[in-house]
Amino acid sequence: MFLVYLLGVVLFFSFITNLAFRKIFKSFSWVDRPDGVKKLHKNNIPLSGGISFITSLIFAVLIFDFFAGVNFNLSWNGFFVSDSIKENNSSNQNLANKIDLIGSDSFDIQIIDLNDESQAVVAINKKTFETELMEIYKDESGTYLIKGNGFEANTYYIEDPLLPPKVTVNFNGEESTYYQKINVNVPPFFIWMLITGIFLAFVTLIDDLWGLSVPTRFLSQALACLILITQSGLYITNLGDLFGFGFVELNPALGVLFTIFCVIGILNAFNWIDGFNGGLTSQFLVGITAPLILLSVNDSLFIEQIYLFLVICFLPYALMNLKVMGKRFVIFMGDHGSMFCGYIVAWCLIYFAMERTDYMNPITAVWIVGFVLFNAISTIIIRLVNKRSPLVSDRSHIHHALDRLGLKGMRVSFVVLVISSMLALTGVLLEILGISELASMLLLIFVSFVFLRYRFNLENS
Prior knowledge:
Elements: H1 2-27, E1 31-32, E2 45-46, H2 49-68, E3 70-71, H3 83-90, E4 98-99, E5 101-102, E6 107-113, E7 119-125, E8 131-138, E9 144-148, E10 151-158, E11 166-171, E12 174-180, E13 184-185, H4 188-210, H5 214-232, H6 252-273, H7 279-298, H8 301-321, H9 334-355, H10 362-368, H11 370-385, H12 398-404, H13 410-433, H14 437-460
Helix pairs in contact: 1-2, 1-8, 2-8, 2-9, 4-5, 4-9, 5-6, 6-9, 6-11, 7-8, 7-9, 7-13, 9-10, 10-13, 11-14
């Protein structure tokens, strides 16, 4: 219940943030202007969706840290890739023996294991920094009795559906009530992913507002990936058991380069799909919710909560972008927002495919982002065939082709959502059924050829 309360607070803050940034961006004319060719919307649309989403995520992390006692375990590892970093950062520390009290001005309390059958309490006086080792007992009523040299304390737990558990502590006759934090160990990867994603979004926001060169954009994307890899030790080390003879291993140098290539490709593919209302919204939600199915099957509550916070922070933008709140509140993500979303989805899929192989095979991750990749690849091929630069913007995306067929507005969004959902669910279903990675890869190749053939027929018609 308390998690629901926190999610409600985050959702309310996210709505306020989206409305506030929309007004700010509109007042500074930081908007997407229609050109009648590629951009067919009628009015100037504020590009505030990305910064609103990121601000909401930062707020979610801070409030979750305050109430849940998050242990980020962050440290700077330098610019090198080492397997030891990966092992150290992926190790789970046992935080069940720690009690953090919110609002305690006098004491920090930690429970330590003396042996398999007994525990003790360490009380740290914040004013004198003296520590006392105290024994802990539990009477028949469930009350914890704490005794030590110079201290005697009783503790009572009070449940509250909308707040963390309250702990009433009586130190030598002086009673104080505090909230107890629920300690959570967050892998450093997730925090570094957010930090580097914010860096990338900041650079791309400058590009949105004032323009940057293509090499500068690609350099910032590669740098963000490199920092995350060096600090978390996570990169693509293998391609899975694609041929039935064991994992296709990659050496560290090739693995790092391939990882950077894949992430840059996916985040730019997300940017390319953000050409109509609901495009990015549908692809981000598919990329986030599809792994949730696998997580629910494998019972991973903590990571499900992280994904839930992502969806809650994104929801206000989705409602405004899809005009659910009315046409006057429509906003766009901007390149900084769409690339940030692609960056988050790409790295989360890599995390599961590499660190949680019991959840997801690498080929399943490709299924989940299959539509945005198919759109990007087919667009590049069409531009090359027509002797145009693959980096020059035009109307050769799948949503433009659907528009030329007569599908308008939300109909395009619906078709795109259905196709992308079918691709993602196919990959997830193959994973759950235990179908071999070779069979999954061959089916994906077949589907991609069907998609490309349809795209060329659509383009020629």
